[in-house]
Write a structure and sequence with these properties.
The protein is an all-alpha fold. It is built from ten helices and no strands. The protein is globular.
Length: 172
C-alpha cells in the first residue's frame, strides 16, 4: 500500500493512518525523504497528517530524521493551517539537537507562532523553543531574552510552564 492509497482509504480512521505512516518511517519501509516528497505536493490537511506521522516517529527515534525534514518542518511553520504549524513545531522540538547549525531560521518562524491565536500552535512553539534553548547554542543570549518577554505576555499557564522549565534547565 502506498501513502496515497492509505490516505485515500475512507475505512481507515485518521489517527490510524498517522500511526501506520509513522510505523513505516520507524521500520524504514518508508524513507523520511519519500514522505516529504509526497507531502510537498499535497494540500495542507494531508501535509499536516504527514507531519504528524513524522512527529510520532521522531519522538520515538529522532535519528530517523533528515535535514530535508528539518527544512520542510521549518518552512511549514509559516503555512496557514494551524495543525501543520503545530506538528511542524513538535518535529523541530524533537530533532533540533541534530541540526544546531540550522536552527536560526526555525527560531524566527517559531517566535512568530508564539503570537498565534491557537493555543496548540503557541504550546508547540513553546515546546520547540524550549528544546532549542536547552541546546545552549550561541543563539541563547538573544533567545532567552525573547522567551522571557513572551512568557510575561502569555496568558496560558500551561504554555508558561514550558518556557519556565526550559529556563530552569539552564540554571537561570
Amino acid at each position: 500500500m502506498t501513502i496515497e492509497d492509505l490516505l485515500k482509504d475512507k475505512e481507515i480512521k485518521s489517527k490510524e493512518k498517522t500511526t501506520i505512516i509513522s510505523g513505516w518511517l520507524l521500520e524504514k519501509s518508508l524513507l523520511v525523504d519519500e514522505l516529504i516528497a509526497f507531502a510537498e505536493l499535497q494540500k495542507d490537511a494531508t501535509k499536516a497528517t504527514c507531519m504528524e506521522a513524522a512527529e510520532y516517529a521522531t519522538k520515538e527515534n529522532p535519528t530517523i530524521s533528515t535535514e530535508s525534514l528539518f527544512d520542510f518542518a521549518c518552512a511549514s511553520l509559516t503555512q496557514k493551517a494551524a495543525k501543520l504549524k503545530w506538528e511542524s513545531a513538535k518535529v523541530i522540538g524533537n530533532i533540533a539537537f541534530l541540526y544546531p547549525d540550522k536552527i536560526k531560521n526555525a527560531i524566527q518562524n517559531l517566535i512568530e507562532n508564539t503570537n498565534h491565536e491557537g493555543t496548540v500552535v503557541r504550546w508547540s512553539a513553546a515546546f520547540a523553543l524550549g528544546e532549542i534553548l536547552k541546546l545552549q547554542t550561541n543563539h541563547n543570549v538573544d533567545l532567552l531574552k525573547i522567551i522571557e518577554t513572551i512568557c510575561e505576555s502569555e496568558e496560558k499557564n500551561s504554555i508558561k510552564k514550558i518556557y519556565t522549565a526550559a529556563i530552569k534547565k539552564l540554571g537561570k
